[in-house]
């Protein structure tokens, strides 16, 4: 690698680091090129000034590219190297992205490198409208998945006896409805607080609504067996627990009334 190429590559890495540290308010950890040429650095995301547990593996390409008619910026790369790098990128737990930096004005774009359509046999395809800037942080963070949240979540131990409704001869929706009514009949509270959770009609309509997939409804029915333990072991107010939950995660809480 020529000195000029090395210098240009470092300019690209520096540009990415400025965006990560400044616009993202995150952390950048460079990786020496001789250690792994598939990753130039790790981005550690923060939440409230603390590490969130989300990690983004990034490779930086500071090169002039060809603009294709389909709105893609094509980064040329040797087929053998691309194959080797793809294997590395697809093994990582979390997000893996390639960041393209223009060597003239240092503007940057990014692409999620894991999907098959992100590359050809000898090119990396970066969407021209996908700028690597402050606004890209949210979308890229979503590529990290929820493993970081799952690892921090409190563990609830369940047993076969908690899911007797699944062994009923009745249809699972019918047996789950009976369990749902039993949960309402016997008061359930959030942790040691006085916040009572009501398993009312609105909550049942929510988890059985027609626009939910069959799998989502089934998962909701199954997890009803753990509902009392989940709520009883909560150490935070119900409003805090619901904050930021996806639709499938909050099926117990979404339409329930806190008394």
Biggest sheet, open or closed, and with what strands and sense? Answer: 5 strands, mixed
DSSP, total strands: 11
Strand content: 15-25%
Radius of gyration: 24 Å
**What strand order characterises the main sheet?**
1-2-3-6-7
Note the run of SSEs as H and E.
HEEEEEHEEEHHHEEHHHHE
Give the proportion of residues in helices. 25-40%
Count of DSSP H/I helices: 9
Q: Give the overall pLDDT as a whole number.
A: 85
Low-pLDDT sequence parts: 243-259
Distance between the termini: 68 Å
Oligomer type? single chain
Structural class call reads alpha+beta
Note the overall shape. elongated
Commentary on this structure:
By secondary structure, the chain is of the alpha+beta class. It contains 9 helices and 11 strands. It has a 5-stranded mixed beta sheet. A hairpin with a 6-residue loop joins strand 9 (188-189) and strand 10. Residues 243-259 have low confidence and may be disordered.
Describe the structure concisely.
The chain has 259 residues and is of the alpha+beta class. The protein contains 9 helices and 11 strands.
Element layout with pairings:
Layout: H1 3-23, E1 27-30, E2 41-47, E3 50-62, E4 66-67, E5 72-76, H2 79-89, E6 95-101, E7 108-112, E8 123-127, H3 136-141, H4 147-152, H5 172-185, E9 188-189, E10 196-198, H6 201-208, H7 214-223, H8 227-232, H9 238-242, E11 257-258
Parallel strand pairs: 3-6
Antiparallel strand pairs: 1-2, 2-3, 4-5, 5-8, 6-7, 9-10, 10-11
């Amino acid at each position: 690698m020529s000195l000029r190429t090395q210098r240009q590559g470092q300019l690209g890495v520096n540009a990415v680091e400025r965006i990560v540290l400044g616009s993202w308010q995150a952390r950048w950890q460079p990786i020496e090129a001789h250690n792994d040429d598939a990753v130039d650095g790790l981005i550690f995301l923060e939440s409230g000034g603390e590490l969130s547990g989300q990690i983004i593996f990034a490779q930086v390409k500071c090169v002039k590219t060809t603009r294709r008619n389909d709105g893609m910026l094509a980064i040329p790369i040797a087929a053998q190297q691309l194959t080797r790098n793809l294997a590395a990128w697809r093994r990582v737990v979390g997000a893996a992205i390639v960041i393209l930096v223009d060597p003239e004005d240092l503007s940057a774009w990014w692409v999620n490198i894991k999907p098959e359509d992100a590359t050809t046999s000898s090119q990396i395809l970066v969407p021209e409208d996908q700028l690597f800037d402050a606004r890209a942080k949210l979308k890229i963070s979503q590529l990290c998945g929820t493993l970081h949240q799952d690892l921090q979540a409190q563990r609830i131990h369940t047993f076969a006896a908690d899911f007797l409704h699944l062994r009923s001869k009745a249809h699972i929706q019918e047996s789950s409805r009976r369990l749902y009514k039993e949960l309402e009949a016997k008061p359930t509270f959030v942790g040691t607080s006085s916040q009572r959770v009501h398993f009312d009609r609105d909550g049942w309509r929510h988890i059985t609504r027609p626009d939910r997939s069959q799998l989502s409804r089934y998962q909701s029915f199954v997890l009803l067996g753990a509902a009392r333990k989940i709520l009883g072991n909560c150490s935070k107010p119900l409003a805090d627990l619901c904050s930021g939950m996806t639709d499938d995660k909050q099926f117990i809480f979404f339409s329930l009334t806190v008394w």
